[in-house]
Amino acid sequence: MEIGKAEEHLALMADLGIKSLGLSGGEPTLHPEIFEIIKFAKERGFAVTLYTNGRKLSDENFVKCLKVTGLDYVNFSIQGGASHSREHDKVVGVNGAWRETASGIENCIKFGIKFNIQSVLAHVDLETYKELLDEFPDANLFIYYRQVSPVSLGKEFFEQKVLSNKGTKEIYKKIYQYAKAKKLKTYLFSRMPLCWWDANDDLEGEIMNKVVSHCHIINGSNLVIDVDGGVLPCPQFIGMKMMCANRAGKVLGTRNFLDRWKKGIPAKLRKDLRYVPDKRCLKCKYFLTKCSGGCPLVKFEIGPHVPE
Ligand code: SF4
Predict the structure, then answer these.
(1) Measuring from atom 8 of ligand 1, which residue has the nearest CA?
(2) Distance of CA 169 from the midpoint of ligand 1 (Å)
(3) Atom of ligand 1 nearest to the CA of 285
(4) Which of 40, 43, 173, 281 is the most buried (most CB within 10 A)?
(5) Domain that holds residue 232
(6) What pLDDT score was predicted for residue 146?
(7) Does the CB atom of residue 229 touch ligand 1 within 6 A?
């Protein structure tokens, strides 16, 4: 995105009262004017998080410049500790990528930039997560579950490659306990309905209070703008534009934007998705506050512990 356009979008977001900004990609660190964009966002009062593979941050000068911009957080995407470096390199398709990302993390520690580590919960054993917690104890560990696009990958992919709700619960309980014993923080960003956790069980009740289960599409609390000004339902759905934030090459003014956001396809999508996955959700005390029944674009069964 050309910098002038990026600044116009940020000005619109500031006018809309948005407080928190996530810069993602592709790979945002490859943008030639990434520092100017972050500075512009900070001047408008956003808390800014950079979502990155972290490779560019192996360069100390790059990290020093990020520090000067006032960047709030870096979210590193890394799929395991040192013993999984080969798998990580294979997944991202670059030899030595893991080492660069790990150096990026070390540089953030060195220059005092706060960071999180995000990893996807997949068919792996507990050791992977133990290793991440042990090797990067200064980070919050964000674990994403089913954070892949169900639209592009299809039902078959989910059935074969993605952990079940039950499998997720069992492995995350172990990760959580391991982290807690070491006084480290971990969060599960789950598409799993909240009632898959048993509020009456000590451990599951504790996790249930921390797990992130709701979907921002339904209450319209998140705005995702792609490189062409297209407004997406969520960052997973690249190419699925609900509306465009530009008209005739210019970014819309706040009133025009809100008119489309509140009355156009985004509003219809929110309304349609409100009725999944089960009518019992509509009477549930968690609905639209802590839970939206899992990702509304994936067919879920509600859990065994449906609240009265
Ligand atoms: S009943 Fe529906 S809203 Fe309530 S916790 Fe279960 S899935 Fe979420």
Answers:
(1) 293
(2) 16
(3) 4
(4) 281
(5) 3-283
(6) 58
(7) no
Q: How far is the CA of 124 from the centre of ligand 1 (A)?
A: 28
Residues of the chain whose pLDDT is less than 50?
A: 147, 149-152
Q: Is 291 in the pocket of ligand 1 (CB under 6 A)?
A: yes
Residue 302 CA neighbour count, 13 Å, CB half: 18
Backbone angles phi, psi at 293, to 5 degrees: 80, 25
Residue 181 lies in a domain: yes
Tokens of 84: 């999984």
Asked if residue 296 is part of any domain, the answer here is no
What is the total count of domains within the chain? Answer: 1
Amino acid 154: pLDDT: 54
At 44-65, the pLDDT tens digits run 999 999 999 999 999 999 999 9
- Single pTM value for the model: 0.88
CATH at 47: 3.20.20.70
Predicted pLDDT at 150: 47
In a domain, 294, yes or no: no
Beta carbons within 8 Å of 37's beta carbon, 6+ residues apart: 3, 6, 7, 10, 23, 31
- What are the structure tokens assigned to 262, written together? 């509140």
Cβ contact 20:72 at 8 Å: no
Residue 213 DSSP one-character state: B
Can you tell me which atom of ligand 1 is nearest the CA of 305?
6
- So what's the pLDDT on residue 143? 81
pLDDT value for 292: 81
